[in-house]
Design goal:
The complex is a heterodimer of chains A (221) and B (116). By secondary structure, chain A is an alpha/beta fold. Chain A is built from 8 helices and 8 strands; from the N terminus they run βαβαβαβαββααβαβα. Chain B has a 3-stranded mixed beta sheet with strand order 2-1-6, covered by helices on one side. A 3-stranded antiparallel beta sheet of chain B has the order 4-3-5, with no helix packed on it. Classes of the chains: A alpha/beta (221), B alpha+beta (116).
Chain lengths: 221, 116
């Protein structure tokens, strides 16, 4: 065999394997009429608070399950289980995101056939979870007012892969220089189709519109 | 961190093709990475070196071509590249519409391998 360098054509998308698994999961959930929402945000943006508010608004109308993904601890699952819904905690053991295989193993541990809506509370950060499809039917993210209106410039991928953006902690707006208008402009530049909701999980303001959107998406599956 | 997951996926594809072609050694991997990726070339190489150690892709060089973020106008169909770091509107230069969707800039694509 000669030692000449040869060129081997590959032409392969390295995320294709995960994307195929995600698609498979999406389809099998659709057959069961179970809607999966992938909720992403920074630590402290209000993911668990939004999940709890959402449960309170929807639990009389829908069967809701929650999958909490964290690097460690059971704190979030314990909090949401108090709301009277099925909740499981996935400890990613250092992993900074969930991929379709991890989500599937979590869903296998839940009885999804009886659930209309499963919310995956992804690991808290605006970088890694954006890179991996999870099998969710829709992606949503939260940006909280104290984080600043420049985040779409710093984490463009995250803002580009989401179908909905919840701007949380609007009760802080008066105390901050966060410009909702600037934020909207920056997000819409990357993703003109995104739905934007301004809410305060603390006061409950704006939650209705978000819940209405989500309920509609669940019904449309 | 997700660098390891991404690089591990790259390595898996590289090794699969290297084995299929029964090569002795992978010398270089030509990649296309979208500008929306936050992985730096230098770090990608370091993670690759770490994961590929003791295998046939050990010390292979990653040749990374960045793919610009391109948006397609949903109104007139024109495509245009945007600078995501700039705080400017992504208005279509042809018709002025802001109804644009991203068509490239998110990819991790392996084009080919150089091997002996």
């Amino acid at each position: 065999m000669s030692d000449e360098i040869k060129l081997i054509e590959v032409k392969e998308d390295i995320q294709a394997d995960n994307a195929a698994k995600a698609k498979e999961l999406q389809d099998s959930l659709r057959k069961e009429k179970t809607f999966l929402l992938n909720l992403m945000a920074s630590p402290g943006a209000g993911k668990t608070s939004l999940v709890i508010q959402t449960i309170r608004h929807l639990k009389e109308k829908l069967h809701v399950g929650i999958m909490e993904a964290d690097i460690d601890s059971m704190v979030d699952a314990e909090k949401v289980a108090k709301e009277g819904v099925d909740a499981i905690q996935i400890r990613t053991g250092g992993f900074c995101h969930m991929d379709a295989t991890m989500v599937k193993s979590g869903l296998d541990a839940m009885n999804t056939k009886n659930l209309d809506l499963v919310i995956l509370e992804n690991v808290g950060n605006l970088v890694c979870p954006a890179e991996f499809e999870t099998g969710a039917h829709k992606n949503a993210m939260i940006l909280s007012v104290p984080e600043g209106d420049d985040k779409p410039l710093k984490y463009p991928l995250m803002f580009s892969v989401c179908h909905a953006l919840v701007i949380n902690k609007t009760d802080y707006l008066e105390l901050s220089d966060f410009s909702v208008e600037k934020c909207r402009e920056r997000v819409l530049k990357l993703n003109p189709g995104i739905q934007i909701f301004e809410v305060s999980c603390k006061t409950g303001e704006g939650i209705d519109r978000w819940v209405e959107w989500l309920h509609q998406e669940v019904n449309n599956i | 961190m997700h660098e390891l997951s991404v690089i591990n996926n790259i390595l898996k594809v590289v090794l699969k093709h290297a084995e299929d072609h029964k090569v002795k050694k992978v010398v270089a991997v030509h990649l296309q990475v979208g500008e929306l990726s936050d992985l730096e070339d230098q770090w990608m190489q370091q993670y690759f070196d770490y994961l590929a150690k003791d295998g046939i892709a050990e010390a292979a060089c990653l040749v990374i071509e960045r793919v610009p973020v391109v948006m397609k106008c949903s109104d007139c169909g024109m495509s245009h590249a945007i600078n995501i770091k700039e705080d400017k509107s992504s208005m279509c230069p042809e018709c002025g519409s802001t109804n644009n969707t991203i068509v490239s800039g998110r990819e991790y694509f392996i084009k080919n391998l150089e091997a002996i």
